[in-house]
């Protein structure tokens, strides 16, 4: 994938150059602009049940494939302000991506859902993670800036669950309380995730969960009764 990222890390936009005869797959609603010879095709890409699993993972039921006969560009932008990062996915190393962070990829990359079990349930991030497999380019977005970390064998990185963007499937992870139940409920830290290397982990410098809680505090819903 030939992508140029601009206006980051606060308001990043990815401009993807589509070669003649090429295409790129984009999350529904993420297209900000097109330039040149670009046509759009909307589908579930994999059928109804795959679209449903993807939607349970926080992405749209549909995806858009942008095709070009003679070459063009597609600009993509995320819903929340933040950064983007472009990765080259290896077929031997699947990537697990948090809900909402996948924004575009080569058609050769398969984006499906993966049951996270109790680990994802207690993290508050939903029961489904997106599993990206295949070989090709992948574009991820974040709320805030993106920081990439390479863990050595046996090394541990602990993140607040709301700051996780993506990690190699080979990385082991476990969700736990930040401290005692008292500090978890009253100390504002909640639950954290321990990642055990070797492998790569990407984090975001802001948490959308914290943003939602702040909005609730400054603009509480009033009862109509």
UniProtKB/TrEMBL annotation:
Signal peptide: none annotated. Gene3D superfamilies: Mitochondrial biogenesis AIM24. It holds the Pfam family AIM24. It comes from Gordonia rhizosphera NBRC 16068. This is TIGR00266 family protein.
């Amino acid at each position: 994938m030939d992508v140029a990222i601009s206006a980051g890390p606060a308001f990043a936009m990815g401009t993807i150059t589509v070669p003649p005869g090429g295409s790129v797959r984009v999350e529904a609603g993420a297209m900000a602009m097109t330039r040149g010879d670009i046509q759009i095709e909307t589908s579930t890409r994999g059928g109804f049940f795959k679209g449903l699993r993807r939607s349970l993972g926080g992405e749209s039921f549909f995806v858009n494939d942008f095709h070009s006969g003679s070459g063009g560009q597609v600009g993509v932008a995320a819903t929340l302000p933040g950064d983007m990062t472009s990765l080259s996915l290896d077929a031997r190393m699947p990537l697990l991506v948090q809900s909402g962070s996948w924004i575009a990829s080569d058609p050769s990359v398969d984006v499906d859902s993966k049951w996270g079990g109790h680990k994802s349930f207690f993290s508050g991030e939903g029961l489904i993670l997106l599993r990206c497999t295949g070989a090709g380019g992948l574009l991820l977005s974040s709320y805030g800036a993106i920081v990439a970390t390479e863990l050595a064998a046996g090394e541990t990185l602990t993140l607040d669950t709301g700051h996780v963007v993506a990690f190699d499937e080979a990385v082991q992870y476990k969700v736990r309380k930040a401290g005692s139940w008292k500090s978890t409920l009253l100390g504002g830290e909640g639950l954290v995730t321990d990642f055990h290397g070797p492998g790569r982990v990407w984090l975001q410098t802001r948490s959308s969960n914290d943003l939602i809680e702040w909005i609730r505090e400054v603009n509480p819903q009033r009862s109509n009764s």
